[in-house]
Specification:
The chain is about 45% helix and about 10% strand. By secondary structure, the chain is an alpha/beta fold. α6 links the parallel β5 and β6.
């Protein structure tokens, strides 16, 4: 005859063994949590250009990662309304050596994100930040540059040279044309461009209608910057062993007429993709009201953007482990800027 199965009591482990097993599981979980925490940097980050489109996103991503983040701003009252509540703010002019050095000392930052508005003072502002970062023994600086075809047309290249020649590790992010240009009234699209009028007018004009660009989302660029700044020491050493310059693009290249077709589908719901049209505008017409010197420079710049920003790279995914957003995804996220509910 078959022997009866043992009762459940015969399989019960002694309480001492159960206690040891529970303690072992707790220790394993603590070790895993500690290992994860160690994979992130504990170094404070100081963000210059924190109230700009990309800077705000960098701040957001860093704080989401639990990184101690400080911002250097021109106007504390204005910045406090735009940045996370309670975030440490350091007020001053980026071109002022004493103000920038004081911010480094107060924040004890060892990593820096540097972004600055294009303009007459950009070079003096950015080179001052680089100089004070070197004096403050900063470990790594991430600079927001511009598209490769335009780097040598302005101060970005001079700042990159200062970083290359200085005793500081750095990364230069060279993004192509931003999707976000299309949600602003800006000559980057056309002389009379207004995003709120695109859907009602069913048309817009652009000097980029005959050129193909691999546009990119500001949020993705910020994600790449934050990923670098949050690396632990080993990860940062590995990153620094590579080329410091990265070209950031979206997943595809297209012209403004193709952009209009995408707008038709996403913003209007027109499957035929013809509801919104893009008409060509001569770049000289776009800049007709500008002084001659500025006009000449901008014509060269926009012509280069239209003709030479066609490449699609995987640098963004390499840095952030995140696939860049498509233009359709960008439009869906920003319908309200186009007046679409």
């Amino acid at each position: 005859p078959r022997r009866p199965l043992p009762s459940r009591a015969m399989f019960t482990l002694p309480s001492s063994v159960l206690l040891l097993s529970s303690l072992l599981l707790v220790l394993i979980n603590l070790h895993v949590a500690a290992s994860f925490a160690l994979s992130m940097s504990s170094a404070p980050v100081l963000v210059f250009g924190a109230t700009g489109h990309c800077g705000r996103e960098v701040v957001k991503k860093l704080t989401e990662k639990g990184i101690e983040t400080h911002a250097f701003v021109r106007d504390v009252e204005k910045a406090a309304k735009m940045l996370p509540e309670g975030m440490p703010l350091h007020e001053g002019d980026m071109a002022d050596p004493q103000a920038v050095l004081a911010a480094f000392k107060a924040s004890q930052a060892k990593r820096v994100f540097l972004s600055c508005n294009n303009g007459a003072h950009q070079l003096s502002c950015e080179t001052n930040v680089v100089d004070q970062a070197i004096k403050s023994s900063v470990d790594h600086l991430v600079k927001l540059s511009t598209a490769p075809c335009a780097v040598k047309m302005g101060p970005h290249y001079a700042v990159e040279q200062a970083l290359e020649e200085g005793s500081i590790k750095y990364t230069s992010l060279r993004p192509h044309y931003f999707y976000q240009n299309l949600i602003q009234k800006t000559i980057a699209v056309g002389g009379e461009y207004d995003p709120a009028q695109v859907v009602p007018a069913k048309t817009f004009k652009s000097h980029l209608s005959r050129g193909v660009q691999s546009m990119v989302d500001t949020r993705d660029v910020a994600m790449a910057a934050a990923a670098i700044l949050a690396l632990d020491e080993e990860g940062l050493r590995t990153h620094e062993s590579r080329d410091p310059i990265y070209v950031l693009t979206g997943p595809a290249a297209f012209d403004m007429r193709q952009a209009a077709a995408e707008m038709s589908e996403v913003l209007v719901g027109d499957a035929s993709r013809t509801a919104i049209q893009c008409e060509h505008e001569d770049v000289e017409q776009t800049l007709s009201k500008f002084p001659e010197a500025a006009k000449t420079h901008l014509i060269t710049f926009f012509n280069a953007i239209a003709a030479e920003c066609t490449a699609v790279t995987d640098d963004l995914q390499l840095l952030s482990n995140h696939k860049p957003r498509t233009f359709a995804q960008f439009l869906a996220d920003h319908k309200h800027e186009f007046g679409v509910e």
